[in-house]
Structure formats: structure tokens, C-alpha cells
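Hey,
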Amino acid sequence: MRRALQVTRRYGLILFGACLLAFTYYHINFQNHFSEGGFVGLGLLAKYAFDLSPATMMFFLDIPLFLVAWLVRGRQFIRDSIFASLSFTVFYDLFERYSPLVMDFSGMMPVASILSGVLTGLGTGLVLRHGAATGGDDILSLLLGKYTGLSIGTIFLLLDGMVLTLSFWYVPVKEMIFTILAVIISSRVITWTVEVGKGADVGAEQEAHGHGHVSVNHR
């Protein structure tokens, strides 16, 4: 019974993280014209530079990383990541189709940056903390963090920074500055969310499962 409750809690938090991430991407990032880092940003670059579908670009970037993660981190991680990724997609589609909420911060862009950074970092961090990823760039950050010793948030910041630097040629400077601020905040929140109190979670899950644990270091 206790094990079932632990598993339900873990998947519930992954689901909540994916929902929070989708909410932020649509209601704050999209509605306030922020650019994007990571594979989403590369997909947008492909659209502007070569008129390629962003979804197609992201698909071809995601697939090899999911295959590598299957070999390095195991089937459980892939199953959980597919669950998280599909949850994010469904939530985003529901928000886009049916949400009546408009969060226009055109006169308060610093506020939008802070909200975007905090909520994106929290959503991403919750998913990563509980042994899943919402996309290939999350997986890449996990793998690089494992083999470089850098924090997950720092890896996200470096990857997003490289993509955003390439995006300067088509994104207005004002939007780019606030996007960069949001990315910096997000990277710190991701690190905090993944790391804080991790020992307590590990102990609880070890007791519930009776072997190993599911975390950002799960194999």
C-alpha cells in the first residue's frame, strides 16, 4: 500500500510539473512573445532560417537522445519521460484550445520574466527530480550534468544561452533581454528544485520500493 502511494505521488508530481510547464509556455512565454532556448529554440531557428517545421526539427533532435538515454539510464526512465512528454503536449494543447486566460504583461515585462523563470524552473525541476524528462534537451542536460559534474541548472543555462545567441538575428532585442533574464532565473530554480531535500526523498522511495530509487540519477 505504501509503495503504491509513493508511486502515485511520484507520477502525480511529474504530471503537475508537466502541467505547470505547459501553462507557463503558453500563458506567459507565448502570450508575451518570449523567445525559447533548448530544442524549441532550435526548432524556431530552423523555421526562420530554412523554412523547416519546428516540430520536425525537434523530432529529429529528440529521437537520438531518447535512444542514448534508453541505453544509459534504462527503460524506466524512458517510460517516465514519454509519460511526461505526452502529458506536457496534452496540457499545452488544452490550454491553447480552451483556456480563456490572457496574461498580457506588455507593460510589465520584468514581471513576466520573473514568473516565466520561476514557473518554468519549478515545472522542469519537478519532472527531473522524479526521474523523467519532457524532451531531448532535458535528457541532454541530465547526461551532460552526470558526466561533467555541473549542476543541471547550469547545463540548462549554457545550452539555452547558445541557442538564444543564435536567435539574436530574428528576435527583437527587448524580447531577447527579458527572455535571457527568464532563462537565468529558471536555471537557478531548476537546480534548487532538483537538489533541495533530495536525501529525504531518496530514503522514502528506497523504503517504498525496497530497492534502488527513482531520481535524477536513476538508471
